[in-house]
Design brief:
The chain is an alpha+beta fold. The protein has 19 helices and 25 strands. The strands form five sheets. Strands 15-18-19-13-14-17-16-20 form an eight-stranded mixed sheet, with no helix packed on it. It starts with a strand and ends with a helix.
Length: about 700
């Protein structure tokens, strides 16, 4: 008997040990006689799972005839015995069948019901087996050729070897077979997974196997899973990523560490389980496979928390965003403007509602665009707009203009952030605040935004709306609660000084956007962007002087700004040159750049792995890197423990990174993953403490 708990070994080694032991048992068994004859006596017997050979009536010449192997666990046993599918999974043994058939009769490929997944947790890893609990039937088609005389024909005999297991032990079983008539063939046929009429496609992409399986859209998939018939082709216990686009179900599965280059050369076979005991068989040939359509949530995929907790998390996350440096100046000046607007209760409420409408509309709009792009096959995540150089240029111009406005360089006539009593101003301010806040959402919105990629569209949009409501809530309360408005400082000269002080964080935001522009498009691109911003600031200086003189100002702005805008329209696209990321050179850890193959190789080395995803526009990422990652103490602990470090730079669009983030249930960065030897990924908090990584490394030394 083989007890999995006796072997605290990595999964591959334990599976290899099981197979070796089974091979040894087979080598000494009479089932492999020297003369090739089929044994006439069982060595181990079928005490735990008995087997019978049944026939579906009598054979007729030129027709296919069905035999059935009916496996039945011992009903009197205190143990729950199970058998195996043709590909048993990480460990186990499939059925080995030999039949004595008349000359020119041929045995076809055995047909199995849809198996179940059985996951067993070992010391530091998981094993997944493909099993059958309770009684099950395997049908064996026989091709009958020549004349058949059923009055004189001898019953078919044979020999079968298989494995009977519980969650603790496995024992070999075998039996001498002799054909008998009878059995519920109508039910047994219905239990077999039918073969799809249309052929599926497969493709190998890096370290992943991709499949595209034709399945009518009306067929429900409650918890899909792919059982691959090809042995040692894929990893069994890892999550499978499913998508559905009309009548095509696509899936991505990590390849096994034992796969050689060029495999699978002869196609892929398997069963697509629908999740309710039903499924279909498929045969796939090599071809194009696109992972498009809506993601399907499975039991092995990252699970989403209850909707009410996601809504609460989105609301609280939006509320916290108000203290971010790119949002707080806008909010505080807009709130203080209510004190200047003064007495009207109706105006305060209208401003609160207008601001809220702008914020919520911006958040829902950005979320809707992201979902539409993902449904169309684009690999994008939250804050995707900051991966676009054009959007960053627009934000740079806005931040520069707002800085100039706060500094008193000029005044906007109707939508100034500091102008009170104007719903149009409040609405525009809400749009701007939400747009500027997206890079800061990571640490407060991880669960909610990750779930938005998995939930139905209406629920996902609800989460984005709640994020906007949380962001707008302080100003909304100020507009509707007179007590809060009375707590605001009284109007006075201090307001102008405060406004100028708030120009400092907005100016720093503009400087950060200049740096991001260089990271996205190169130094030449950033230089030309500065030229355009300089021209606009000069034009605004002229506007401010004319405004203070009581003269018409904005035509002058157009005359001065137009040449710079035209220059930028031609110079910026021509100078764009996406720089090669150098995060691996900047880090004191000298990490590898992320790729699926690099991660697979690092994990196969048996060393612990720390993988982090970052972006230059992610404020939280940069704080975490300075506080916890790029520390000498962390580097020394990693070196002592032999930790392999790897970084994924998401500053610019990267479909492979976006797909990996989605598989981890994350909508964006930062994302921190810790892999111990042979174990699945541990997702670390999005806000790292200084000693968290150091302690992880010391734990595995």
């Amino acid at each position: 008997m083989i007890d999995a708990r006796m072997f605290p070994l990595p999964k591959l080694w334990f599976a290899a040990l099981v197979l070796a032991l089974l091979a040894f048992v087979a080598a000494v068994s009479p089932a492999v006689a020297q003369d090739g004859a089929i044994p006439t006596e069982a060595r181990f017997g079928d005490e735990n799972i008995s087997v019978e050979l049944r026939a579906d009536g009598l054979p007729n010449a030129g027709e296919e005839w069905l035999l059935a192997l009916r496996f039945t666990p011992d009903p009197n046993s205190n143990e729950e015995w199970h058998g195996y599918w043709s590909n048993p999974g990480d460990a186990g043994q499939g059925m080995q069948l030999r039949l004595n058939l008349p000359d020119r009769w041929e045995m076809g490929e055995p047909l199995y019901p849809v198996p179940e997944r059985f996951v067993q947790q070992l010391v530091d890893t998981e094993l997944m087996n493909h099993i059958y609990k309770g009684a099950y039937t395997v049908l064996v088609p026989i091709r009958v050729t020549g004349e058949v005389d059923n009055t004189t024909r001898e019953p078919i005999t044979g020999f079968v070897e298989y494995l009977a297991c519980t969650d603790k032990v496995c024992v070999p079983q075998d039996a001498v077979l002799r054909e008998s008539q009878g059995g519920d063939f109508a039910r047994w046929r219905a239990e077999i997974a039918p073969l799809l009429d249309a052929e599926a496609s497969f493709a190998v992409e890096g370290t992943n196997l991709r499949l595209a399986i034709p399945l009518p859209a009306e067929v429900g998939l409650s918890d899909p899973h792919i059982f691959i018939e090809n042995t040692q082709l894929v990893q069994y216990s890892v999550a499978q990523s499913f998508r559905r686009d009309g009548d095509i179900v696509s899936v991505e599965i990590p390849l096994s560490d034992w796969v050689e280059e060029g495999q699978p050369a002869d196609g892929v076979k398997g069963i697509l389980s629908f999740g309710n005991g039903a499924g279909v068989r498929f045969e796939a040939s090599e071809g194009e496979v696109a992972l498009t359509g809506e993601r399907i949530v499975t039991s092995s995929a990252p699970q989403t928390p209850p909707l009410w907790t996601l809504i609460l998390g989105a609301l609280v996350g939006g509320l916290i965003l108000n203290i971010m440096p790119c949002v707080f100046p806008i909010l505080s000046l807009k709130a203080i403007s209510l004190a200047r607007a003064g007495e009207s209760e109706a105006k305060a409420r209208s401003e609160g509602l207008a601001y809220t409408a702008g914020v919520v509309l911006a958040c829902v709009g950005l979320g809707a665009v992201m979902l539409i792009l993902r449904a169309g096959g684009e690999q994008v995540g939250w804050a995707f707009q900051l991966q676009s150089p054009g959007v960053v240029i627009v934000l740079l111009v806005l931040a520069s203009v707002i800085t100039a406005n706060f500094a008193g360089v000029f005044e906007l006539p109707s939508i100034s952030i500091t102008r009170g009593g104007q719903p149009a101003s409040a609405f525009a301010t809400g749009l701007l605040a939400a747009f500027a806040a997206t890079p800061c959402t990571g640490p407060f919105m991880a669960a909610a935004l990750g779930a938005a990629l998995l939930l139905p569209v209406p629920q996902a949009l609800l989460l984005f709306a709640m994020l906007g409501l949380g962001l707008a809530l302080p100003f909304l309360l100020i507009g509707f609660v007179p007590t809060l408005r009375r707590m605001l400082p009284k109007p006075g000269a201090w307001m102008e000084r405060f406004r100028r002080i708030m120009a400092i964080p907005m100016g720093l935001t503009a400087l950060a956007l200049i740096w991001l522009t260089a990271r996205l498009g190169g130094q030449g691109f950033a230089l030309f962007a500065l030229v355009v911003v300089f021209g606009l600031i000069v034009a605004l200086l002229v506007v401010g002087r004319l405004q203070r003189a009581g003269k018409m100002a904005w035509p002058a702005f157009g005359l001065i700004a137009a040449p710079f805008v035209i220059f930028g329209a031609f110079a910026l696209p021509a100078s764009f040159a996406a720089p090669v990321t150098n995060l691996t050179e900047e880090s004191i850890h000298s990490p590898q750049a992320y790729s699926a193959q690099a991660l697979a190789d690092a994990r196969a080395s048996g060393q612990p792995v720390f993988l982090w995803f970052t972006a230059d526009w992610c404020v939280t990422c940069k704080v975490n890197e300075s506080v916890a990652i790029e520390r000498e103490a962390t580097r020394e602990a990693f070196e002592a423990a032999g930790v392999v470090t790897m970084v994924g730079d998401w500053t610019q669009r990267d479909e492979a990174i976006t797909m990996f983030l989605s598989e981890q249930g994350a909508a964006g960065v930062p994302l921190y993953l810790w892999y111990e030897s042979g174990a699945q990924a541990e997702q670390l908090p999005q806000v790292l403490t200084p000693d968290l990584l150091k302690e992880r490394a010391e734990r595995v030394r």
